[in-house]
Amino acid sequence: MSVEFVFRLIGMVVMAVVCFRLGLYLGGGWTDVRVISALTLAGAALGLVITPWLTTRPFRWIRNRIQRMPATQLIAATIGLVIGLAVAALLTPALSNLPPPLGDVLPFVASVVFGYLGMGVMVMRQQDIFQVGARFVRESGFRSNKARKGDVVLLDTSVIIDGRIADVSRTGFIGETMLVPRFVLNELQHIADSSDSLRRNRGRRGLDMLNKLQKESVVPIRITDMDMNEVREVDDKLVMLAKQLHCPIITNDYNLNRVAELQGVMVLNVNELANAVKVIFLPGETMQVLIIQEGKEAGQGVGYLDDGTMVVVENGRRHINRTIDATVTKVLQTAAGRMIFAQPQNSPR
């Protein structure tokens, strides 16, 4: 038996009793049984129909709104409501002294008006108000070493499938709670159920990586039901959610990266992080490299460092499948990453 059905029964009984008493009042007693019976049946039917619209359905609507509402906005609305009601309480003695019916009605009206104004002002100006509060705390010397503990970062589908975020999180470089929206999880599941074997394997890898993150990450991983129902694309939902939460997005998607930056959303790109932490070699330094294939130009050999950096060795073709000492001659930073040019150590420059 559902909760809504129970409320329907309660509403039916209550309305039937109310209409029965109304029938007694209108009929002047038990003299007109037909009027009383008709009103009682009509009240029972009315209670059965309208009770959910007065009880369970408004409650569900409010619950869904609260679930989609960012925590900062919810806190701001609560603080604004308290302030508004406090202002109304201060005005109540003066308003109560007014002649009736004003003295009876205006205190209630003031509570509703100031409560609504308090919530509206706090929600609309929450960022400015919280910034002022944070500045006051900093200037008062009460800054905490864990001031960013409550912050969050949003994870994109691409970065979950990539998997390197699990290694990054274990190092402790990410101190915020990692938030995975439900629509990102649904996209991962959709990819994992694809008929294309490559997409299916990528989706399953993403689900495995998410499970690994939940077990091994040093920071909390949360699945959130917050959604942006106004848009359908996952990338657009992520950008709008990040703007609401005032938090960055972690992604490997180049297009999402650019779109988010254009809309003022901070992006943490794992590829850019990987490029930033690669070992830096300067011209004249020596390295060991395994030549695995020939290059585009005549006589060139190509190898790779442990971090994936490509090394093009002049006159290295004859050393294919051998590890040699090479001297760096030039380092290029390209959109695809860092590329090193070198030549065998004993070769003339």
Oligomer kind = single chain
Structural class: alpha/beta
Q: Separation of termini?
A: 86 Å
Per the CATH scheme, the topology name of the largest domain is: Rossmann fold
Helix tally? 13
Please give the domain count.
4
Low-confidence stretches: 141-150
The whole-number mean of residue pLDDT values reads: 82
| Tally of strands | 10
The biggest sheet amounts to: 5 strands, parallel
**Shape descriptor:** elongated
Radius of gyration: 33 Å
Query: Percent of residues in helical segments?
Result: 55-70%
Strand % is: 15-25%
CATH superfamily of the largest domain: 5'-nuclease
Element order: H for helix, E for strand: HHHHHHEHHEHHEHEHEHEEEEE
CATH class of the largest domain: Alpha Beta
* Main sheet strand line-up: 3-2-1-4-5
| Reported CATH architecture of the largest domain | 3-Layer(aba) Sandwich
Describe, in plain words, how this protein is organized in 3D.
- 56% of the residues lie in helices and 16% in strands.
- The protein has a five-stranded parallel β-sheet. It has a five-stranded mixed beta barrel with strand order 6-7-8-10-9.
- The protein has 13 helices and ten strands.
- The chain has four domains: 3-59, no CATH class; 69-128, no CATH class; 152-275, Rossmann fold; 286-344, OB fold (Dihydrolipoamide Acetyltransferase, E2P).
- It is elongated, with a radius of gyration of 33 Å.
- The protein is α/β, with parallel strands linked by helices.
- A hairpin with a 2-residue loop joins strand 9 (323-334) and strand 10 (337-344).
- Helix 1 (3-27) packs antiparallel against helix 2, helix 4 packs antiparallel against helix 5 (102-124) and helix 8 (164-171) packs parallel to helix 10.
- The chain has helices at residues 3-27, 33-54, 56-68, 71-96, 102-124, 126-139, 157-162, 164-171, 182-192, 197-216, 234-245, 254-262, 270-276, and strands at 152-155, 177-181, 221-224, 249-251, 267-269, 286-294, 301-304, 310-313, 323-334, 337-344.
